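Protocol step 4 of 5: obtain the predicted structure for the target chain.
Materials: sequence only (see below). No template structures provided, no constraints applied. The aim of this step is simply to have a reference model before the mutagenesis design in step 5. Sequence pasted as it appears in the construct record:
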Amino acid sequence: MRLTLPEHKKLVFEVTVPIRWGDMDAMGHVNNTVYFRYMEIARLDWLTSLSLGAAPQGQGPVVVNAFCNFHQELRHPGDVAVRMFVANAGRSSFDTYYELRRSDDLATVYASGGAKTVWIDYALRKGAPLPDSLRRLIAD
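Step 4 output (structure tokens):
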């Protein structure tokens, strides 16, 4: 079963990530677990750009569910252009979606994926309301 990106999503961030030699597996292509790392880099860089990165003594994001559809193999050398989208802001959660393309082949989606992100109070280990600025950004 291939999951698809929702129709109503908002592009919020783009980042280029180098494909490292060590990202490859014995089959000669990027290991499937590394695709999640590329998505994580985009998510954390985006939140940091909003001054909303993880604050171990405060509040921040936790991924509670993630998926990835592998459309074509990524191989070293090269760079991955990651486009990040957001949707569905709730009280304490929102959805993120990603498209991974090679920077030298932007017409082809090599992988697509997403994650449900919950905003939590780290000390209480419980969900917390999304910051108003984040909720507005996702909803606009």
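Step 4 remarks: The first helix runs from residue 32 to 49. The chain has a mean pLDDT of 93.
Proceed to step 5.
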